[in-house]
């Protein structure tokens, strides 16, 4: 059974929250933190609701609505989300008040919105969707687990359309605390210098991307989701190489058929070695695009990569701002996404043109 | 028909016992786990009873074989997951492709809330080791790494129904031949964050909770972890005669109430759809169900929604039903796992669990819960309900082999 991507939506530090082609211009940034480019949420959400909603909820709901719009459907049969951090803003608000007010005189709104399933629940509520609803919260696998759950359910043949998405927000608190773990660049970097900075650390990002998945190819279909796999704590580069080879073989994909690899390079010299190794030794000659100089690093960033790959396949154009190595030529047939989060959570996603 | 997954064993730690045998003994003796908090530090200590696991972190760390400074959520998880594995006849874990699907709602919040107090005073204060395992997924990985599991690891968080969804996802992983075995369930430790959060919703009872009782006024929070070991039918056939499979996971379904972020709809539409879907997958009718382990938190709203949905689906004949949360408290992300183990054990041993503190039938409902422990009943099919915030509703059906 084939799984198709019928619609996509993305809210990110770039001007992605619209239908149509990949944004031509990169929104510049500097420093170690990329902030979301906020669209006008009134397009999708009631003004009264917007005021109470945490940022990640708005981002998630907007990406979901965009993807449904693009797919031309009003209500999916199931909703599955992935988020590593959940609703950090509301969590921080409740935690701060709880501590500062010595557990007295607290109000419920932030607590209610702090649970990890808030976004999936809100989407169900707004759409009146009584179908299957699940939320995965496993670090750098949160999005991949949501996709896998969707694939397994679609293969059972009783569900026609699933909204699958991933979202993570960065807050002032989380950026400060994550910075203390020495994850981010100390020296100034920009979108142009990050990927070749050759030093320790990366830049923090955030975003939400949603996809409408189904089993029937239609007028709205953007791409085919040909394969997905995850690898936890590979022993070394040899293991990921073997895993990629097995993955391509399992999906009957010859290396020559791959038009483009999208790797999760984030400028961290140690982490990027994995990509460099695979690019040079397993898939030489194949052009490479990157995305974390556009959205920053966060545990569900692979959802941004999948959104970008869908755009490339649907538009048959690779944005110059995303190219890292080599030159694309001919039709974009198959795109392999290889991402890892902190060298621990590795994932592969294979997409094909329709 | 059916999910295709079998239950090879289970493990539980909660407010009424540190393992399954101790929990069953507590039910038999009608001893519930609510008491004044001994381990959680909160200004509400004397106000709200809780069902704590009766051990400090040092003791739990020794039981788990893990460092004392890590989150209590992980310590509880390891203890129950290891018991679950040891209860099976599967032997050496490294022989199998193993998945660990562990649900939780708080992650390492018990440590984060200590860290955050220092951090708020000065942003360079607070020990990083207290916040490094904040994420829900970090708790799962601590346990997976300690047990040598890496074929598939995942964490689910859908509030109070989290662990039931872990069983569904685990079952699908087995059906898709991605792994041979999945340890599936959930864990949650008590934290000030959750206690205060539930307090703002004004749904905590200051006395022992009274699920499915007309006088109910709220829930008691609990903590713990519960896991089943899911295997394929083929692997079940290879189990040694000394450790046969407990039962089958014959059906499951997940539906959304789509009514309110925290409250249940008056007619319990999500609950109804979840139970109906689980029956459909198992190929059963309501009359086939011999016992229901209720979600039964003890709040006005939850119990009437669940009860109304049961009345609609099961009328005119109602199977014995009870809420074990009247003993364990509401263990949130762990509850679906703990109650899955109790339900699987119910099928295996013919146990019907009592509902503590019941005195007066809910006037809107045509049934009341069972109040006495009994064993040796002929139970072919047992249903377990888990309903939560975000409208997330899940039902599981366990059946005799």
What can you see in these coordinates?
The complex is a heterodimer of chains A (354) and B (401). Chain A is built from 11 helices and 11 strands. In chain A, α2 crosses α5. By secondary structure, chain A is α/β, with parallel strands linked by helices. Chain A folds into 2 domains: 4-214, Thiolase/Chalcone synthase (Peroxisomal Thiolase, Chain A, domain 1); 227-352, Thiolase/Chalcone synthase (Peroxisomal Thiolase, Chain A, domain 1, 3-Layer(aba) Sandwich), CATH 3.40.47.10. The two termini of chain A are 15 Å apart. In chain A, 58% of the residues are buried. Helices cover 33% and strands 20% of the residues of chain A. Chain B is α/β, with parallel strands linked by helices and 401 residues long. Chain B folds into 2 domains: 5-237, Peroxisomal Thiolase, Chain A, domain 1 (3-Layer(aba) Sandwich), CATH 3.40.47; 250-399, Peroxisomal Thiolase, Chain A, domain 1, CATH 3.40.47.10. Chain B is built from 12 helices and 10 strands. The longest helix of chain B has 15 residues, at 72-86. Chain B starts with a strand and ends with a strand. At the A-B interface, α3, α5, β3, α6 and α7 of A face α4, α5, β3, α6 and α7 of B. Chain B: Belongs to the thiolase-like superfamily. Beta-ketoacyl-ACP synthases family. Chain B: GO terms for molecular function: 3-oxoacyl-[acyl-carrier-protein] synthase activity. Chain B: Residues 1-400 form the Ketosynthase family 3 (KS3) domain. Chain B: Keywords: Transferase. Chain B: It holds the Pfam family ketoacyl-synt.
Identify the notable features of this structure and list them briefly.
heterodimer, A: 354 residues, alpha/beta, Peroxisomal Thiolase, Chain A, domain 1, 2 domains, 11 helices, 11 strands, 33% helix, globular, B: 401 residues, ten-stranded mixed beta sheet, 12 helices
